[in-house]
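Lab channel / #folding
Pinned by the channel admin:
"Please post every new chain as: sequence first, then the structure tokens as a reply. Keep commentary short and put observations after the output so the thread stays searchable."

First post following the new format, from NK:
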Amino acid sequence: MSQQIRNIAIIAHVDHGKTTLVDELLKAGGAVESHQTLEDRAMDSMDLEREKGITIKAKNTAVHWNDYIINVVDTPGHADFGGEVERVMRMVDGVLLVVDAYEGPQAQTRFVLRKAIQEGLMPIVVINKIDRPNSDPLAVQDKVLELFLELGATEEQFESPIVYGSAKNGFFVRDLNDPQDNILPLLETIVERVPSPKVDEDKDFRLLVSNIDWDDYVGRIALGKVESGTVTKGDSVYLLRKDGTKVQSKITKVMEYSKMGTIDTGFSSAGNIVGLAGFPDVDIGETMALSPNEEPLPFVDIDPPTVQMQFAVNNGPFAGKDGKHVTSRAIYDRLQRELKTNISIEVSESQEAGIFNVSARGAMQIAVLVETMRREGFEVLVSRPTVILQEIDGKKQEPFETLFIESPDEAVGGIIQALAARKGVVDMMNPKGSVTDIEVTIPTRGLIGFEFELMNITSGHGIMSHLFKEYRLHCGPISSRKNGALVSMSTGNAMAYSLMALEDRGRLMVHPGEEIYLGQIVGEHSRATDLDVNPTKAKELTNHRSATKGITETLTPPFKMDLERAIEYIASDEFVEVTPNFLRLRKRYLDPNERKRMAKKADV
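Reply from TO:
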């Protein structure tokens, strides 16, 4: 049975087309009947994935083609979600490396491919989007082979087959001169190139839990590849936990992947990727086995978190008005649930009551968690990201990253200047037509908020990606935000009359009539210092004209930010107040006297 199984992961940089490719594989495997249509990017099932246009969670499906079962894992391409990639490497035997025919291999391509090569997986290079203007698939092919050499690929991995095509237009070819008819050449290459799973069908059942799913009827479902033996509904098996304890339970459900969902098969054999229910507290990285005397299966190492943020109970005057879950217990329990399915984050309690430290790979990963929580009805305060420092050989060290930038030529000077202010060192500049590729070594601290600065410098045409490099000696202070804040010294509704007077002081973040409170940030000061202001003061009424006549029409629209931008914008003494329907920026200490007292204490 295992000889007819192929387990593959699709890995690529953000927006190189891997999820669209999965859609085409599903169509070829009969996931859609003739009278049906497949929704674009069907594997991106989370609302946030559809809105951001990226894959966040690794997901499984299966393509049934010519008596073969091709289990496909669609993985994230953003480095912040690298934990999702690393844990599925133990489930698969080959990878489809999807590369844009114009952009070539990017930072996250290197990151994920390195993990795959270290695991000894067999790659197939898929050069996608050859229909894109100015694409150069042969030049990109050379770059991919150079990358294989750089990452220490074996000779067999280096001799990877290459297919060219366009997932969007539904065709792939082995040679650029072949007719562009369908994606069968890709399916044939997968079956020929990717080995069947290495299993021992004669041994007892074993499975490494590589992912966790949820079913409203049976609860937690452990996902993984059956390493040996068979498993049947009703079997009594042991869960070998990471702490050395062993728990026995009965398998209540065996599921395999089929088309766009799962089917309850009740049985599965070695080599297949399955879902098993029956253990309410199963965790990723644990081993299921028929015998309690089996050795736990090794789990792939996960790169440690490099960024930390604080989650705090909303203690503002509007707390509880918008959300359903507002207590520290509710927030802590939600973070503990996240740990069950997200192995690349860590949660700990801080020294202050009601404040929790959440560590992750990057700010985007934590922003996705916060956005998910607000949609579930939570209210929470979140701080600016800080990097996780380490003491190595008695010296303070911080994480550094390799930053890759593609910029229009005319913006390169401004980018270099901005990078220098963030302690970035340019390693390489490569002009490429009207754009320039820049490679930089920069402390992780210097990356916080840089993407938005890059967008401003390049008028939205700059592209960046980054990859963790190493820990180095701390490189000194880096200035973050250059401007101070306009901070409200009163609670009430913002008045057009007051806001009009404040426009000369900086950019406003609130509109007339908006509810604001003491300590809330209502704008960006034009100077580097904070300024306490009163945006709720109304104009005195007279017999001659109304309080707002001629004012509202001339106010500049307020400067509003999304969650990710707000998190990277705030200073270390500020919070973003996140509720289901509102994002507010505020000072950590709302009372101005308390702020001054805490500032003096910090100076001391």
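NK: The first helix runs from residue 18 to 28.
TO: also worth noting, Confidence is low (pLDDT under 50) at residues 33-46, 48-58.
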